């Protein structure tokens, strides 16, 4: 009997121990577990968010730098086809009024280039098949020149416009490209001249001292790229060009050009720069991934990128002298 009682006592103790082991967590234990779990999950979420921000920041920086490279390549290729480039855009801007470019835009570069006629255009083919003496009797010389040259002069201007945050543009500023072509269209029945245009060659007009034609200039306006940096007020904005070059505009360090001076007229102070020398242009451009538009968010880190530099030798042959 004693043995049986001992067995029953042991069994009762085991049952009590089992019931004790099945007891739930206390309120304090649950609160501690929740706090520890929240810290772990919060830390993980913070790390994930930071990684996503870093990834987005790098993507924006990379995209902005690529856009700046495309923009500076486009500008230098465009300017590389110029036949005449102005040492200062002010020499021609004053002729165009406040809408071309707009008063709030800062002119950076201005030049003349030859735009070829498109042989695949139906109007161009019709023009070449027409007779100048019949269709353009009053402008016979102009028609014959156009058929011989197969191209016409176009004035191109690059300007910088600061963004306000109240428009669709998100960056600090943008580059605007203007062009004033001679003709609004090439057709078999007419050669409509763009208002404000005047031929930059001839006895009454020239490239250096060009005077606009009749009417208000109406050219083509397009935005080349956005997210261009504004000038840094704490950095030098003048004297950034090599010796012998003129900086345009003179007070910018984010988008500006350096134009070789005195290559369109003799310079008594520098015998190495003579009429007919090849014209050289250096373009500087700096992007900024930061935004001026609150709806597009803000950039958590400094978004200013390194300044890009591109140099181009102008292909123009006006006044070109052999051996120069």
Topology, please?
Elements: H1 2-21, H2 27-80, E1 82-85, H3 90-93, E2 105-116, H4 122-129, H5 132-135, H6 140-149, E3 151-162, E4 173-181, E5 220-228, E6 245-248, E7 255-260, E8 280-285, E9 308-313
Structure description:
The protein has one domain (43-313). Helices cover 31% and strands 21% of the residues. It is built from six helices and nine strands, in the order H-H-E-H-E-H-H-H-E-E-E-E-E-E-E. The strands form two sheets. The protein has a five-stranded antiparallel beta sheet. It has a four-stranded antiparallel beta sheet with strand order 6-7-8-9, with helices on one face. Strand 6 and strand 7 (255-260) form a beta hairpin.
Task: Give the terminus-to-terminus CA distance.
Answer: 129 Å
Share of residues in helices: 25-40%
The helix-strand sequence is HHEHEHHHEEEEEEE
Tally the helices: what do you get?
6
Helix/strand/pairing category: alpha+beta
Number of strands: 9
How many domains? The number is 1
Tell me what portion of residues adopts beta-strand conformation: 15-25%
Widest sheet, order of strands: 1-2-3-4-5
Shape: elongated
Contiguous uncertain segments of 5+ residues: 264-276, 319-324
Query: Compute the gyration radius: what is it?
Result: 35 Å
Instruction: Kindly report the average pLDDT value.
Output: 79
Largest sheet: 5 strands, antiparallel
